[in-house]
Amino acid sequence: MTSDGVILSGARQRSRAELLGRARRAATGFRALGIRPGDCIALLLRNDYTFLEASLGATIAGGYAVPVNWHWKAEEVAYLLQDCDARIVVVHADLLPLLARAPAGITIIAAPVPPELAEAYGPNPSAAAPTGLDWEAWLAGQAEWDAPPEPPRESMVYTSGTTGRPKGVRRQSPTPDQVAGMARNRAEVYGLKPGVRALLPGPLYHSAPNSFGLRAAQLAELFVLMPRFEPEEFLALIERHRIDTTFVVPTMMVRLLRLPEAVRRRYDLSSLRQVTHAAAPCPPEVKRAMIEWWGPVIHEFYGATDIGAVTACTSEEWLARPGTVGRLVEGASIRILDDQGQDCPPGEAGEIFARLACLPDFTYHKRDADRRAVERDGMITAGDVGYLDEAGFLFVCDRKRDMIISGGVNIYPTEIEAALIDVEGVLDCAVFGIPDAEFGEAVCAALLAAPGTTERQVREALRARLAGFKVPKVIEFHEALPRDASGKLLKRQLRDPHWQGVGRRI
C-alpha cells in the first residue's frame, strides 16, 4: 500500500494519505470507546469516505466492520445489531431513523450527509434529530494510531440463510501468506493492481463491492465512488477520469444497454481494461451485447461471501463457451457432488462445493451448526447446482435452495413468508423467484387468502416490516397451494411455469 492516490466522491477529493490518516484516528477512537480485538462496529452508511475510513479503522483496531444494508427497515437493522453484538454503529445522519429499535447501550456516531448523497437521495422527511457523537468532531479529537496494527480481519458481511434470517460470515485473522494470496486473488478476479483507475457504482454494504472498494481505496491511482448507479453518469465518469477497472452487476448492464444509441455512442470508453461482473446470473444476450459494445474487457467470476471468488473467465473464454463462469483461480478447488456425496463426472450437474486456500476459515456468527451444515470434506457450498465440462470450465445451472437473486441482491423466501403469514387475510403462502428482464429475478408470492384480501393490503402490510426490495413484485391468488402427503409445499409446481422457455433457471 502506498500513500499516493486520490479518492473522488462527487465534487470532493481526498488523498489516500489523508484517508488512511483519518482511518488511523478512527482506530484510536474506537479503542477509546471500548472496542477490543474481535468486537463489531456496524456501518449504516452509503458510499462515502466515512465508510472507507470507519471500515479500515475497525481493521486497524482489530475489530470487525459489519456493513448494514440501508434499504432495510428498523426491525431488520435491529436484528443485525443485536446478532453481531455491535458495540458501535457509524451512521449517516439521514439514516438515524433506522436505529429506532437499536439495542440499548450501543454507541452511535452520526456522520454528515455529503452533497453528492443529498443530491442522489434527497432529504429524508423522517430524519431524526442528531443523536450520539458527531463523526467529524469525534474524529478530530483523536490521535493517529501509533501502535502496531492488530491482526487484520475481513469485514463481517451478513448473508441470508435458509432460516430466513441473515447470518454473519466471521472469518479468522489471515496469516501473512493468506493476506498475500487474497491480494493476488483480487488482482486476478477484479483486475485490482497498483496504479489502476477504478470506479465503483455498487453499494459498499454488498460483499463484492465491499471487497472491490476497500482494495481499490488502498492501491488505486484514482478511485471514484458513485453515490448511486446512474447509467449515463457511469459512462461520463469512465470518459472523464479514464477509468480502466470497474465492477458491475448484470442489472447495471441491462440499464446501460437500454440507453439510446446516441447516448451510448457519446462517450469514449477506450480506457477500459477490465470490467468485472458477478453476484447474479447474466443473461447471455446481455453479456454478448456488452462485449460487442465495449470489446473483450468483460470478465466474470463465480463465488459467494462464504467461499470467495473461485473461478474467473475472460470475454474470449465466455464467447468460446457461452454460459460459463470460468475455470479455477489460483488456490481454488471445486467438487461437484450428487445427493449421495459422490463426485459427478464432467457434464453432470450436482451441488457445487468449493474452497479458496487464501481465505481464512470462518463460522457463521453464533451459528456454528449452520456452518457445519454447508461443509463436506473441507469444501463449502453456497447451495448452487452446476457442472464442469471436460476442460474444467464451470457452468451454474440451478440453485439447490430457494434463494432469489434480484439485481445482485440475495433474497430469502422464508423471511418474506414469515412476514406474509402474519398479514391479515393470508391463510397460506409461497414465495419464489420468477424471470425479470432487468433484475434477473423478481419476487413472486403465491397466496391462499380469505375473500376480500387485496394485493394492495398485502403489500402495505409487508412494506411496514420489510425492505422494499423484498416486497413481492408479483402476487398470485390461488384456490389452494400444492402440498404433498406430508404437507410439504411443492414450490416447483408454482415456480416452474414461469421459467418455461426461459432457459437456465438460477
Can you describe this structure in just a few lines?
By secondary structure, this protein is an alpha/beta fold. The protein is globular, with a radius of gyration of 23 Å. The mean pLDDT is 91.
Describe the protein in words.
The chain is of the alpha/beta class and 506 residues long. The protein has four domains: 16-141, Rossmann fold, CATH 3.40.50.980; 175-295, 3-Layer(aba) Sandwich (Rossmann fold); 326-401, Roll (Luciferase, domain 3); 404-499, ANL, C-terminal domain (GMP Synthetase, Chain A, domain 3), CATH 3.30.300.30. Helix content is 30%, strand content 27%. Strand 20 (375-376) and strand 21 form a beta hairpin. It is globular.
List keywords for this structure.
single chain; 506 residues; alpha/beta; Rossmann fold; Luciferase, domain 3; 4 domains; 14-stranded mixed β-sheet; five-stranded parallel β-sheet
Percent helix: 25-40%
- How many independent structural domains? 4
The CATH C-level class name of the largest domain: Alpha Beta
Largest sheet: 14 strands, mixed
**What's the total number of strands?**
27
**Gap between N and C termini, in Å?**
38 Å
Instruction: Please state the second-level CATH architecture of the largest domain.
Output: 3-Layer(aba) Sandwich
Low-pLDDT sequence parts: none
Shape: globular
Overall residue-averaged pLDDT value: 91
Cα Rg:
23 Å
**Count of DSSP helices?**
16
Q: β content, as a range?
A: 25-35%
Structural category is alpha/beta
CATH fold topology of the largest domain? Rossmann fold
InterPro entries: AMP-bd_C (IPR025110), AMP-bd_C_sf (IPR045851), AMP-binding_CS (IPR020845), AMP-dep_synth/lig_dom (IPR000873), ANL_N_sf (IPR042099)
Family: Belongs to the ATP-dependent AMP-binding enzyme family.
Organism: Belnapia mucosa
Keywords: Ligase
